[in-house]
Specification:
The chain is α+β, with helices and mostly antiparallel strands and 268 residues long. The chain contains five helices and 15 strands. 18% of the residues lie in helices and 27% in strands. The strands form four sheets. Strands 5-8-7-6-15-10-11-12-14 form a nine-stranded mixed beta sheet, with helices on one face. The chain has a two-stranded antiparallel ribbon with strand order 1-2. It starts with a helix and ends with a strand. It comes from Rhizobium brockwellii.
């Protein structure tokens, strides 16, 4: 029986080979080995208009790679003609309701970016919580420690009206009254209606001290210099005041909340 099974199996294989002998499946296609046929079958076909000699057509010169256009430059990056705003700055300097007053938004696009509030690397020997004012660069630093500080742009006093040294912030006030000093009244008689004898100027959006004021003392005496807000946002980064340190109202509110009672201050 086993012998017969083997005979029948071999006979079936012979019949299958015979039936496939008419196909090309078992015959290799050696034509692909011919270089001439390979070139003929794979060469690209180009459009040749009638009457045009391709040998006399000049090639198109290489075009330069397009560069980024500077149609609209922002302080962050370049775009193709579309203005871009920083949502963080829009949130920090947007319209703000504070107490009974609504502070208008600051047009941050018109403020030099270095004078906007930002955390920066700052190496100093001063203790965390100290306020350091760099009068040359028009920066105020609130020292945070670990080599960091919150930096604000400030407006400062004109030559001859500036104060420098070490002191403490003896007193802080929200929406303060403004009372010009006797010296200021003598220099600017137009502010006499707001002198001490008349009770000063009421708090408000047009008050020169803005939304907050921090009063600088030295050796227990009032130096008459303050860190304060201002409605004149364009004065930040400039030397235009009578010696005090001006800040954007939104920034002075932020600093006010960070500064503790009797915080040290260095003006250099």
């Amino acid at each position: 029986m086993n012998f017969l099974r083997r005979v029948f199996s071999l006979a079936g294989l012979v019949i299958a080979v015979a039936s496939l002998s008419g196909c090309n499946i078992l015959i290799p296609d050696v034509a692909a080995d011919s270089p001439a046929r390979f070139v003929q079958e794979t060469s690209p076909v180009f459009y040749q208009p009638p009457g045009v000699d391709p040998r006399r057509v000049r090639p198109i010169p290489d075009q330069p790679v397009p560069q980024t256009r500077e149609l609209y430059k922002t302080q962050f990056h370049q775009t193709y003609g579309l203005p871009v705003t920083n949502p963080v700055h829009m949130a920090m300097y947007g319209e703000l309701r504070d107490a009974d007053f609504t502070l208008p938004a600051i047009p941050v696009s018109r403020v030099q970016p270095q004078f906007l509030r930002q955390e920066v690397d700052y190496q100093t020997a001063e203790r965390p919580g100290t306020v350091v004012i760099d009068t040359k660069a028009h920066f105020l630093y609130f020292v945070e420690g670990n080599g960091k500080a919150m930096r604000y742009g400030v407006g400062l006093g004109r030559d001859g009206y500036a104060w420098s040294g070490r002191g403490v912030i003896q007193w802080k006030q929200k929406w303060p009254r403004w009372t010009p000093s006797v010296e200021m009244v003598s220099r600017q008689p137009e502010v006499r209606p707001f002198g001490a004898e008349n009770g000063g100027m009421n708090p408000g959006l047009m008050n020169p001290l803005g939304a907050r004021a921090m009063y600088i003392f030295k050796d227990g005496q009032d130096t008459l210099y303050r860190i304060h807000g201002t409605p004149d946002w364009q004065s930040v980064g400039k030397a235009t005041s009578s010696g005090c340190v001006r800040m954007l109202n939104q920034d002075v509110i932020d600093l006010y909340d960070r500064v503790s009672a009797k915080a040290e201050i260095v003006v250099m």
